[in-house]
Each structure stands twice: as C-alpha cells, then as structure tokens.
C-alpha cells in the first residue's frame, strides 16, 4: 500500500514537471520568435507576437507557482531534501516572477507605445531572467526526479 502511494506521488510529480517543461518550451520558442523581429519596429505583427509571448510567459510562470509549489505545499512531497531545495529556491523564484510580470505589464497592455530601443534591452533582460528561472526550476525538478527517497 505504501509503495502504491509513493508511486502515485511520483507519477503526479512527473506530470507536473512535464507540464511545466512543455510550457517552458513554448515560452522559449515564442521568445525566439519575438527576437527575430529585431531591429524592432512597431507594427501589428510585432504587437501580436509580443502579446502571445507575454501571455505564454505568464502561463509558464504560473505553472511553477500554482502546480509545482502547490504540489509541494500540499504535503504530497515528503522527501526533506526536495523540500529544502524548494524552500531555498522559492524566494528567488518569486523575485524572478515579479520581474517577468513587470515586463508583461509594460509590454502587453499598451503595445502602441512600445519604445523599440527599450524593447531590445528589456527582452535581453527577460532572456536572462528566463535562463535564471530555468536553472532554479531544474534544481527542484532534479530533486523531485531523484529516486533515492532520502529524508522520508
């Protein structure tokens, strides 16, 4: 019975991870697409691509909070090593999320006022934020995928 519960938890954590990675991949593809419009000039196509990217980025960042961390917080993960890693990373993830949301707020609501020079710098910053976020999430993901069961 205990083995079944542990296997069920592992299956659930893998589903969450797969969903997060799928969302991440979509966001990165959309980021790459936005960057192909360099040098940036305001037009309807750029506005649409940028809006799609912003929407995807928000969905992706939400998955880490509402799926991955909810899963951990609801006592479905019992390995202390996983929980320690997640707890140490969470404040950094929150800060990262806020910076990504700031970009979203700036460039998804009133795209007619895009300042093209600032957009390039902001997108470069977003690229760095996404890379940092991926590294943070991967620490949690690698701990979750570890089958050692340490700290049960």
What does it look like?
81% of the residues lie in helices and 0% in strands. It is mainly alpha-helical and 152 residues long. The protein has a single domain, classed as Regulator of RNA polymerase sigma(70) subunit, domain 4 (Four Helix Bundle (Hemerythrin (Met), subunit A), Up-down Bundle), CATH 1.20.120.1370. Helix 1 (2-35) packs antiparallel against helix 2 (44-73) and helix 2 runs antiparallel to helix 3. The radius of gyration is 18 Å and the shape is elongated. The relative contact order is 0.16.
Q: Which features would summarize this protein structure in a list?
A:
Four Helix Bundle (Hemerythrin (Met), subunit A), mainly alpha, 0% strand, single chain, 152 residues
Largest sheet: none
Q: Might you state the CATH topology name?
A: Four Helix Bundle (Hemerythrin (Met), subunit A)
- CATH architectural group: Up-down Bundle
Shape: elongated
Query: CATH superfamily membership, which one?
Result: Regulator of RNA polymerase sigma(70) subunit, domain 4
